[in-house]
Amino acid sequence: MAMRHLITGQNNCAPDGASSSNPLNALANAVLGQSSKAQSIKELPGSVSVPSTSDFGAAGPLSTIPGSENEFKQDQRPLARGADFIRGGPANDWIESFRPPGVPEFGGPEERFAEFDQIYNNTGTTFGPPLDGPPQRVLSGVLHSFLASGRAGVPFQPVPVPALGLSESDKQCIRDRSCIMARHILADQPEEYIQAQVNTLLHSLDIDNRMRGPMHGRYPELEEYWNQSQSSTGPAMMRNAADKWITEFGKQNNNPENWANSFEQQYGPNGWASEFEQHQSQMAMGQMGGANMANLAAMEQSRMLAQTLASNNDPKFQNSKFFQFVSKMSRGELIIEDNQVKQGSASQSSGWADEFQTQYNANANSWADQFAHEELSQGADKWVSEFSSEHNQGALNDNWVDEFSKLNVTDEWAEEFSGGGFGESSADPWVDEFQEQLSSSKQNSGASRGVYVFSEMNPYVGHPNPMQEGQELFRKGLLSEAVLALEAEVLKNPDNSEGWRLLGVTHAENDDDQQAIAAMMRAQEANPTNLEVLLALGVSHTNELEQGEALRYLYRWLQNHPKYGGLALPQSTDSPYGPDVIRLFNDAAQMSPEDADVHIVLGVLYNLSREYDKAIASFKTALQLKPQDYSLWNKLGATQANSIQSADAILAYQQALDLKPNYVRAWANMGISYANQGLYEDSIRYYVRAVSMNPKADNAWQYLRISLGNASRADMIAACDARNLDALQKEFPL
Amino acid sequence: MDGSSLKSAQLLEQMRLHLATGAGKELTKKVGLVYQLNIAPKKLGVDEEIFVVDLKKGEVTKGPYQGKPDATFSFTDNDFLGIATGKTNPQIAFIRGAIKIKGSISAAQKFTPDIFPKPAKL
Questions:
Q1: 3-class SS shares of chain A: helix, strand, coil, % to 5
Q2: In chain A, what residues touch B92 (CB-CB under 8 Å)?
Q3: What digits encode the pLDDT tens for the residues B19-41?
Q4: Cβ–Cβ of B118/A644 closer than 8 Å?
Q5: Cα–Cα separations (whole angstroms), residue A585 to A529, A641, A721
Q6: How far is the C-alpha of B10 from the C-alpha of A608, rounded, in Å?
Q7: Which residue of chain B has the CA closest to A301?
Q8: Would you tell me the crossing angle of helices A547-560 and A578-591 to the nearest 10 degrees?
Q9: Given this model, what pLDDT does residue A432 score?
């Protein structure tokens, strides 16, 4: 081996460490093979004379070469060899379990529990309900009785068990796990007794009843390596004093037969601890359920974050204060209140053990619970204190704040969370709500950027004349149906400006300004000078409180008007000044006082400048000219409502509804007027009417929810959240 | 509120008018707290405009509060509107880091959508 390294020039020969450029490298590899192959060579009968882990023996002389990097090399070699094994075979799981205890590994231990559970319940989820399949039940029963007898200190009585049809790997798992479990439970018993117990169990399950190390027989190479490394590299490893765990590992594992034992000692508690951690956070969520949503959410989120972070194996990062902070957040040891970090109740280590126990006593429906309970009552005091001290040490100072802010993550991680999936571990409806919130806000932001969101299921796609159908439905007042027909039309003819315009009008009447804006923008693309479209865009942007946009479209209305276009200022401007525009429209109104449209635009403009009295006067003038325009009555009502003349507003809305009974916007506005007067019961009836005519009217749903709360009808909030129209209409008839 | 280009300013103007009505007076009786709102047009904390919603006296004013408000909120224009119209859950917004709160947490918890009047749509 030394020869090979000499030739390949690792660390020593190659200039600049560019060993790959060494032509001898290829030769050496061809002759000697890669390290895995060298492994098998070493196992050939003839090679016994090579000192059993030749690497170290042979590396010794080399270290005397001046300027060599052999010290480093010696330290690294065993780890590198280990790494070869990781890559080399299916021993991943096993190798993984030798992760140093300081490095939390969220996935691993869980997986091991899951594995056990899987054998048991044949389900993938750790705490899922047991399947009813007879073999699983039988197996479960056997294992339960085994554990029960172990706890009671009574020898396990073999029971006749029918053939279970276990696969080889299942058997292997049961054998390995039961060895580990038995040593947990029967820790105070002599080794012979434990073995006898396990053998009895395995025998009754018709499993090869030899208690052995986990990899015995199946991975001979591995075992070979194991023996070698234990027998001769031990001292070499000792040099690596910094890595305490390796030392410990080496000491404990001299006898491979004791592998299970040492695994349990070293990693059982840790695996369990990590699981406990999860449970604790869930428990804490349960306990604090009513108290403070913010903390729960913070815990949930930081738990997610902690898991993400934990998957980063960089030890520097793992030890960073930021990571520790997030871990603590996730366990509820720290909570944030008033933007200040405080110690949470969950960190009081005296209390949590009790809490934990009660938690487990409370839901003893799975075997894992029993095990955990057992573990606790067996007096695992040592690790308890270890665990708590490990996690309580390093009291948080201000440094993390700096570190945190240096990373400048606040925005990023919030976004990351919104991308990540939550809720798999929490039954909290609030989390669902959050998810819904996120998805809906995504949709909304899409719409507000002017992206039209089409309905998913549209029966009118393929209709021979969806435009005509849409117009007909719109006239009949079937707005939601009209939307579908018109969507089919614009899907068929994307450049149909009138189709988009009518779609926009329909959405506006259906109380959905964002979709209205999106549709009107497409209409304007197809026909940039259509006055109706420009006015509609001005109105919808006014409703969305987007003053600048609204003003721009209304000014464009003037510019494009055949009669008043000449009034527009000579220099083109993209951000017109409000008072200027109002002045120009007043000039237009003087030019032709009989043009209702000018008064309508003026009314909208005065709404923008919050001169409500003038706006009301303008709309009233327009109504004298166009008394049958239901949307004008609604505009008057809305202006009155926004200037707190709610009683007048209701009269105006009533006019609009007399002209167009299915005018969803007016129904919703009615609700708003009642709500703003504190008449919540009445407002509910109008909101329910609005949403029953357009179940997609999100604003109305939101207002309905608020009114239900204010009217002390919290009992119906669930129906509102579920958008259960039947229940709401029954409860609040109009 | 005049001269502000914030969308929130429109709502706060309506709030100012609303507080003069019967329902608004009920509100001051029920809540009785002073909130200061630092509203940023786009990015949290940048170019903030400061408003005070005084539910003790029943008024809405521009500029910082003279004294100590019960709670001070910092958010963006859109987030404030979302909260005031019931679109956004304030607690979620807080978790997302979209709101920063100073002052009493119990006062902050009374800052809910139902204290604001709803704008009607033209």
A1: 70, 0, 30
A2: 297, 433-434, 437
A3: 988 888 888 988 999 999 999 99
A4: no
A5: 18, 24, 45
A6: 9
A7: B95
A8: 30
A9: 52
Separation of alpha carbons A204 and A141, rounded Å? 12
Smallest Cβ–Cβ distance between B120 and the set A604, A673, A677 belongs to A673
Comparing C-alpha atoms, which of B110, B106, B81, B107 is closest to residue B93?
Answer: B81
Nearest CA in chain A to B103: A338
CB atoms within 10 A of CB B14: 25
Cα A305 to Cα A72, A95, A151, A324, A435: the distances in Å are 35, 26, 38, 11, 16
Give me the residue from A297, A546, A705 closest to B86, CB to CB.
Answer: A705
Return d(Cα A656, Cα A631) in angstroms, integer: 7
- Which residue from A160, A148, A152 is spatially nearest to A205, judged by alpha carbons? A160
Please report where in the chains the tokens 């056990």 appear, as a residue: A116
**Which of B21, B86, B121 lies closest to A513 in CB terms?**
B121
Q: Which of A340-354, A428-442, B28-42 has the highest mean pLDDT?
A: B28-42
Write the DSSP symbol of residue B28: H
What pLDDT does A304 receive? 66
Q: Which among B1, B21, B44, B121 is the top mutation candidate for probing chain A, defined by the most A β-carbons within 10 Å of its own β-carbon? A: B121
Q: Which residues contact A251 (CB under 8 A, 6 or more apart)?
A: none
**Out of B1, B22, B91, closest to residue A293 by CB:** B91
Give how far the C-alpha of residue A460 lies from the chain's centroid of Cα atoms, to the nearest Å: 36
Coil, strand, or helix at residue A334?
A: strand
Q: What's the rounded Cα separation, in Å, for the pair A616 and A595?
A: 17
Under DSSP, is residue B36 helix (H, G, I), strand (E, B) or coil?
strand
Q: How far apart are CA A406 and CA A425, in angstroms?
A: 31
- Rounded to a whole number of angstroms, the distance from the CA of B28 to the nearest CA of chain A is 13
Contact B101 A638 (CB under 8 A): no
* Tally of helices (H runs) and strands (E runs) in chain B: 5, 5
- Gap between the Cα atoms of A706 and A698, Å rounded: 13
Q: State the CB neighbour count (10 A cutoff) for residue A349.
A: 15
Q: How many CA atoms lie within 13 A of A237 on its CB side?
A: 24
The distance of B47 to chain A (nearest Cα, Å) reads: 18
The ipTM is 0.92
Task: State residue A91 phi and psi, 5-degree precision.
Answer: -85, 10
Highest-confidence range of A189-193, A346-350, A383-387, by mean pLDDT?
A189-193
Read off the pTM. Answer: 0.52
pLDDT at B61: 93
Q: The tokens 């050496």 sit on which residue?
A: A28
Cα nearest neighbour of B112 on chain A = A706
Beta bridge partners of B72: B36, B102
pLDDT for res A266: 52
**Under DSSP, is residue A266 helix (H, G, I), strand (E, B) or coil?**
helix
Strands (E), A201-350: 334-337, 340-343
Strand partners for A336: A341
Closest CA to A488 of A514, A515, A518, A467: A467
Residue B75, phi then psi, degrees to nearest 5: -155, 175
CA distance A252 to A525: 76
Q: How far apart are CA A48 and CA A11, in angstroms?
A: 27
B interface toward A at CB cutoff 8 Å? 1, 5, 7, 10-11, 13-14, 17-18, 20-23, 26, 81, 85-89, 91-92, 94-98, 100-103, 105, 113-114, 117-122
Cβ A339–B88 below 8 Å, yes or no?
Answer: no
The HSE-up count of residue A272 (CA atoms within 13 Å, CB side) is 24
Amino acid (1-letter code) at residue A299: M
Residues facing A340 on adjacent strands: A337
Cα(A117)–Cα(A192) distance, rounded to whole angstroms? 27
pLDDT of residue A172: 74
